[in-house]
């Protein structure tokens, strides 16, 4: 059967085209992220929370159910030239007018070739992947120290949920100071993955100063949902009926936060087949060569000295 080493798809050996991937994500996104009862935008009071990995990261405020959001007509934002589209929504009933000047947006971006986006975290993408960027912009928080989160639903794997794998690297060339990559892998057909750097940004200008930690909870099986009616989605996923949910929370009570500019963005990469692998950057390879090479040279030097000494010693002995 199909393992991760091989590239192997539901339909013969042809990978889906970027446009098909985009359609797939556009059809599946409303189901996975939007519109279901339990999918929600979470908000917590981060005041006095010192442990950033605490779950939940503070006292929860009433969440916003994404089922009660109204969304723009996706057709209007679909751009075949850049292979992208944006869902933008706000609560239908907004008594506190928190979203009077704000919105929650999901931007889906497919790629026609391999590369990296210009902005961090610059995850390596291929034509078999799509990027999903979530942005909360301009909404009034419910408190002075609000931390936000998302509850995300995804397909299960057999009776179990995939687990979040953390990969650590010594290389942060593309995502400054972020040495971790989190991913979910599905081994069964269609094999696929979701991956992200555990970082969100509190400014449009993404960098070290605007980076917030992103924490993911373990996945739990959730109520069974029907897949969306889209024939594309049905053809791709088949008769799947096991779903899992997890929470992502962004930020800590200290450091940059949503409160700075009322801006929060986070992105992930979704794809079929095995995930793209980052090679070490030339800079890191150079540093490694120097760092590992120098002790190597010292060892070699030590060895030579030792050899010479032994030689001298044996010569000395032989003379004696
Ligand atoms: C936060 O801590 C301060 C001092 O420890 C306390 O006065 C305040 O009531 C606390 N606030 C919350 C929301 O717990
Ligand atoms: C979305 O817009 C397109 C054209 O712009 C239109 O054909 C379609 O009916 C609209 N869909 C909804 C749900 O309003
Ligand atoms: C929305 O923006 C307008 C103008 O920028 C401002 O006057 C108004 O107070 C804002 N409303 C909220 C709820 O923030
Ligand atoms: C927000 O901060 C201001 C000033 O720092 C304070 O007066 C106000 O009580 C705080 N509000 C909440 C909800 O904590
Ligand atoms: C996500 O967090 C909210 C608020 O703390 C909680 O009610 C919900 O059960 C969590 N969901 C998951 C899947 O952990």
Give an overview of the whole structure:
By secondary structure, the protein is an alpha+beta fold. It is built from 5 helices and 16 strands. The strands form 2 sheets. Strands 1, 2, 3, 8, 12, 13, 14 and 15 form an 8-stranded antiparallel beta sheet that branches. Residues 1-14 and 30-38 have low confidence and may be disordered. One 2-acetamido-2-deoxy-beta-D-glucopyranose (NAG) binds next to helix 2. One 2-acetamido-2-deoxy-beta-D-glucopyranose binds next to loops.
Number of helices: 5
The gyration radius over C-alpha positions equals 25 Å
Shape: globular
User: Major sheet, described briefly?
Assistant: 8 strands, antiparallel
N to C succession of SSEs: HEEEEHEEEEEEEEEEHEHEH
Ligand inventory reads: 2-acetamido-2-deoxy-beta-D-glucopyranose
Strand content: 25-35%
Q: Class by helix and strand content?
A: alpha+beta
How many domain modules? 2
Oligomeric state of the chains? single chain
Mean pLDDT: 76
Q: Could you give the distance between the termini? A: 73 Å
Helix percentage range: 10-25%
Record field, number of beta strands: 16
List low-confidence stretches.
1-14, 30-38
Q: What is the fold's blueprint, element by element?
A:
Blueprint: H1 18-32, E1 40-45, E2 59-60, E3 64-65, E4 69-71, H2 74-77, E5 84-91, E6 103-110, E7 129-137, E8 146-155, E9 165-168, E10 180-186, E11 192-196, E12 199-201, E13 211-216, E14 220-222, H3 231-237, E15 243-250, H4 258-261, E16 263-272, H5 282-319
Antiparallel strand pairs: 1-2, 1-3, 1-8, 4-5, 5-6, 6-7, 7-16, 8-15, 9-10, 10-11, 11-16, 12-13, 13-15, 14-15
One 2-acetamido-2-deoxy-beta-D-glucopyranose binds at residues 143-144.
């Amino acid at each position: 059967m199909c393992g991760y080493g091989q590239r192997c798809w539901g339909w013969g050996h042809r990978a889906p085209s970027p446009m098909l991937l985009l359609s797939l994500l556009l059809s599946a996104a409303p189901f996975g992220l939007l519109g279901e009862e339990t999918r929600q935008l979470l908000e917590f009071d981060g005041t006095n929370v010192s442990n950033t990995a605490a779950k939940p990261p503070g006292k929860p405020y009433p969440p916003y159910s994404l089922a009660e959001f109204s969304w723009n007509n996706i057709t209007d934002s679909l751009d075949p030239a850049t292979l992208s589209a944006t869902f933008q929504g706000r609560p239908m009933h907004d008594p506190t007018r928190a979203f009077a000047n704000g919105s929650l947006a999901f931007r889906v971006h497919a790629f026609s070739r391999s590369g990296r986006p210009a902005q961090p975290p610059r995850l390596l993408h291929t034509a078999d992947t799509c990027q999903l960027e979530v942005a909360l912009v301009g909404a009034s928080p419910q408190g002075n120290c609000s931390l936000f989160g998302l509850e995300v639903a995804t397909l299960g794997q057999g009776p179990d949920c995939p687990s979040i794998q953390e990969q650590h690297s010594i290389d942060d060339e593309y995502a400054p100071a972020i040495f971790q990559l989190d991913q979910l892998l599905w081994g069964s057909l269609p094999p696929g993955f979701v991956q992200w750097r555990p970082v969100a940004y509190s400014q449009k200008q993404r960098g070290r100063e605007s980076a917030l930690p992103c924490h993911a909870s373990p996945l739990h099986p959730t109520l069974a949902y029907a897949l969306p009616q889209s024939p594309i989605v049905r053809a791709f996923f088949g008769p799947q009926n096991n779903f899992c949910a997890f929470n992502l929370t962004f930020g800590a009570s200290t450091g940059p936060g949503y409160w700075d500019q009322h801006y929060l963005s986070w992105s992930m990469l979704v794809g079929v087949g095995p995930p793209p692998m980052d090679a070490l950057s030339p800079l890191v390879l150079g540093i490694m060569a120097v760092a590992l090479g120098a002790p190597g040279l010292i060892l070699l030097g030590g060895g030579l000295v030792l050899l010479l000494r032994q030689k001298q010693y044996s010569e000395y002995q032989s003379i004696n």
